[in-house]
Write a structure and sequence with these properties.
single chain; alpha+beta; globular; six-stranded mixed β-sheet; about 210 residues; disordered N terminus
Length: about 210
């Protein structure tokens, strides 16, 4: 019977685990990483909602400079800082084809706490080589990102709330935020450890009975 319990437990891990998952959105939609991202080629078309996709997962970084550090924090008082550790990367993107002089307010919730946000076009360009999904090309010909005090980003735990403002003469060609979250262990690393612990416990029980 113990073997049945182990099998059920592992099946549960396989069904519920996910690396770097987006677990909630408001005025945003989760899409697969697009092949090309740039001005005039916004993924999913324009509209009054943002697009979100997962980038590289489980990336080890050391002293990587980001535009927002701290949790909770917001873009009006956020300071730059360095992030070290293993992170999952996600992109929030909004195309320019929306109504002028309006703001898009929404949120994205992840399955791990947010450790840093990148939104300046210089740092977005610099970190593409680290975090861009396989098969995705980001244009560096446009001004991407957003400008604090014009748009806002507010970090609290696992959630990033955004207020993306589009004026008649925007300071960026399109809005982008690269969100780094604390990496979530995959089933490939957690299940064997749990299984080893359970099998060890079973062997100890058998030894006690035999003695």
């Amino acid at each position: 019977m113990k073997h049945v319990y182990v099998g059920i437990l592992l099946a549960g891990f396989a069904a519920t685990s996910a690396d770097g998952a987006v677990i909630g959105v408001n005025n945003a939609i989760l899409i697969s990483p697009p092949a090309n991202v740039g001005l005039g080629s916004g993924p999913g078309g324009s509209g009054q909602f943002a697009k979100v996709w997962n980038e590289q997962q489980g990336v080890s970084i050391s002293s990587l400079m980001v535009d927002m550090i701290g949790n909770p924090t917001n873009s009006y008082v956020a300071t730059t800082g360095a992030v070290t550790g293993t992170v999952d990367s996600h992109m929030i993107h909004h195309t320019p084809g929306w109504i002028n002089s309006t703001s898009l307010v929404g949120s994205v919730t992840f399955d791990g706490p947010i450790v840093g946000v990148i939104f300046s076009f210089q740092r977005l360009n610099q970190t593409d080589a680290i975090f861009a999904p396989t098969g995705t090309t980001y244009s560096t010909a446009n001004i991407r990102g957003f400008t604090p005090f014009v748009s806002g980003a507010f970090v609290n735990g696992n959630t990033l709330n955004f207020d993306l403002f589009r004026s008649q003469f925007p300071l960026a060609d399109y809005d982008q935020l690269r969100v780094l979250t604390q990496s979530v262990p995959s089933v490939g690393t957690t299940a064997p450890l749990v299984l080893a612990g359970m099998m060890g416990a079973v062997r100890r029980r058998q030894t006690v009975k035999a003695g």
